[in-house]
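for the writeup, i need someone to sanity check this before i put it in the appendix. the sequnce is what the collaborator sent (i think, or maybe the updated version? ugh). structure was predicted straight from it, no edits. if anything looks off just tell me and ill rerun, i have time this weekend
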Amino acid sequence: MSLEFTDRYVGVRAADDGCGFNYDAATIPDDHYGLMTMRERAEELRATLRIASAVGKGTVIEVIVPAAEPLRQANPA
């Protein structure tokens, strides 16, 4: 897992070296609610969702959520 904050976006990345699965974003079956829900939530947030997986190779899921406006860093006192 990794989490990245910038003034323009928040990024989350989860990766494993597990068994993986065949993934095709264009043909997610209706009974795969977890994948469908991730895609729906990303759309609601105007986020970019990337899923990469292959049998025997593990899975990587990345979500990039844009900031509504540039975030400002606090000025150290």
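Residues 2-66 form a domain with the Heat Shock Protein 90 fold (CATH 3.30.565.10). Residues 33-44 form the longest helix (12 residues).
thx in advance!!
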